[in-house]
Write a structure and sequence with these properties.
- There is one protein chain.
- The chain is of the alpha/beta class.
- α5 packs antiparallel against α13, α7 packs across α12 and α16 runs parallel beside α19.
- A seven-stranded mixed beta sheet has the order 4-10-9-8-7-5-6, sandwiched between helices. A four-stranded mixed beta sheet has the order 1-2-3-13. A four-stranded antiparallel beta sheet has the order 11-12-15-14.
- The chain binds pyridoxal-5'-phosphate.
């Protein structure tokens, strides 16, 4: 042991900034380090504010990735920070465990007041996947049935239960055997759902109102009819609003677009302003009381940090900011503007096959152009690695326009944006203009891009090994 005093956090941030990648490569996830270097995304991020990330040189990047959608009210919102500081200053009697606390109760009260009448109680959690795990367990215990249905391409988290209802093989492969009794149905296919429900053993159908992987919107009356089928079949209807909730789609909950009344609603991500881990399941009175049906069963599900004061305070501040700044309506307006500016790209550029979204959950899907030469180049790029074309768009957007956005899923030629709800009109316009310029260049100089793609593809192939 050396006699020197260990550094404080402030000293660490000051003295060791710049060591992030080296530490990551040595102790955390070196393959992620290789991806970041391949794409040139290996920045030192010095700070974040509102809709922006700020690099070590003080350059501001428009962040349309939003930490996987947690920064609805923007990065480091002063009200959320103040709420956390107030809890610290109050030295609250946090986590008594054999006792209850105020802030978590008020949060439950406020969330349930904003949710449909079909839910009446809250089960606190710390992450999205933990909320989904709770929903699976509650559904099984409440119905006495074991099967859980999920949609193809669904993403509900990466712990074992949530992974068992994940509809993407790139996440599932190698982790089996997964939970028994979890079966997929195609997203939008009511006949398949009805067939599965007819077996009479389904505890729940868990579905994202809009699928996060790919930003897939449901067919017009799919969700209402799926809910009705579940009711008729004695199964619980569970909406996973971890990504779509908290104003993302221009409504506080996306389910409001279809007037749904689910038996359970999973929340997480943006709920605590991106500051403190959080999750929650809103549960129907019937399901809740069946599961927690006596004093002996009061603690049969829970989580040590669930409902902690810091998360609850940050969430209450987030709800206040949403209301005070009218951010849910603003998200609806900004989303409509983004679609208005970007949907015409389908007509203007052969590689743009579709632009879709609801509120500030938006995606653009690319596909091969119709001409022989263009198609050959496209295929040359895609042979290197499926989905590589999208990186030919995200990389220049980042380096030349200082805009961070993401590819919507593995081997997908779809780019996705989850802008903070505080995004301003001129930033939406800047993104749309930068996107068009990048796509136009990709169409005008396809051979240069193909060469770039080949180089990047080769390097990406090495990353995967
Ligand atoms: C719809 C949905 N459910 C659940 C999760 C899992 O959340 P977490 O990463 O907080 O566990 C995610 C994460 O992206 C999600 O989008």
């Amino acid at each position: 042991m050396s006699g020197s005093t260990p550094p404080t956090v402030a000293e660490l941030i000051n003295d060791r900034s710049g060591e992030e990648m080296a530490l990551n490569d040595r102790f955390l996830n070196p393959q992620m380090g290789r991806i970041l270097r391949t794409l040139g995304f290996d920045k030192v991020w010095r700070g974040g504010e509102g809709a922006h990330l700020i690099d070590a040189d003080g350059e501001r990047y428009l962040d349309l990735f939003g930490g996987y959608g947690v920064f609805a009210i923007g990065r480091n919102h002063p009200a959320a920070i103040a709420a956390v500081e107030e809890v610290m200053a109050a030295r609250t009697g946090n986590l008594p465990q054999l006792g209850v606390t105020l802030l978590s109760g008020v949060l439950a009260e406020q969330l349930l007041a904003r949710a449909p009448d079909s839910v009446a109680a809250m089960v606190p959690a710390n992450t999205g996947t933990e909320a989904v795990e709770a929903a699976i367990k509650i559904a099984r215990a409440a119905t006495g049935r074991s099967r859980v249905l999920y949609a193809d391409h669904a993403f509900h988290g990466l712990t074992l239960g949530s992974l068992s209802i994940n509809g993407n093989s790139e996440f599932r492969d190698g982790f089996g055997p997964l939970l028994a009794g979890c079966d997929p149905v195609a997203f939008g296919d009511l006949d398949a759902l009805e067939r599965e429900l007819a077996r009479g053993d389904v505890a729940a159908f868990v579905v994202e109102p809009i699928q996060g992987k790919g930003v897939n919107l449901p067919p017009a009356d799919y969700l209402q009819r799926a809910q009705a089928l579940c009711r008729a079949g004695g199964a619980l209807f569970v909406c996973d609003e971890v990504q779509t909730g908290i104003g993302r789609t221009g409504r506080f909950l996306a389910l409001e677009h279809w007037q749904l009344a689910p038996d359970m609603i999973c929340l997480a991500k943006a709920l605590s302003g991106g500051l403190v881990p959080i999750g929650a399941v809103l549960v129907s009175r019937g399901a809740f009381d069946t599961v927690f049906d006596g004093m002996e069963r009061a603690v049969r599900h829970g989580s040590t940090f669930g409902g902690n004061d810091l998360a609850a305070a940050a969430a209450l501040a987030t709800l206040r900011v949403l209301d005070e700044q009218g951010l849910v309506e603003h998200a609806g307006r900004m989303g409509a503007l983004l679609l208005e500016l970007t949907q015409p790209l389908v007509e203007r550029y052969e590689v743009v096959h579709e632009v879709r979204g609801l509120g500030l959950m938006w995606a653009i899907e690319f596909g091969p152009p119709s001409g022989r030469v263009g198609r050959a180049l496209w295929e040359a790029v895609e042979r290197r690695q499926a989905g590589l074309f999208s990186q030919l768009i995200t990389v220049p957007l980042f380096h030349e326009h200082r805009i961070l956005c993401q590819v919507a899923g593995h081997r997908m030629n779809t780019i996705k944006a989850l802008p903070p709800l505080v995004v301003q009109e001129q930033e939406i316009r800047r993104f749309a203009a930068a996107l068009e310029e990048t796509i136009a260049r990709a169409e005008r100089y396809p051979s240069a891009l193909a060469r770039f793609g080949a180089r990047t593809g080769l390097r990406a192939a090495r990353v995967r090994r």
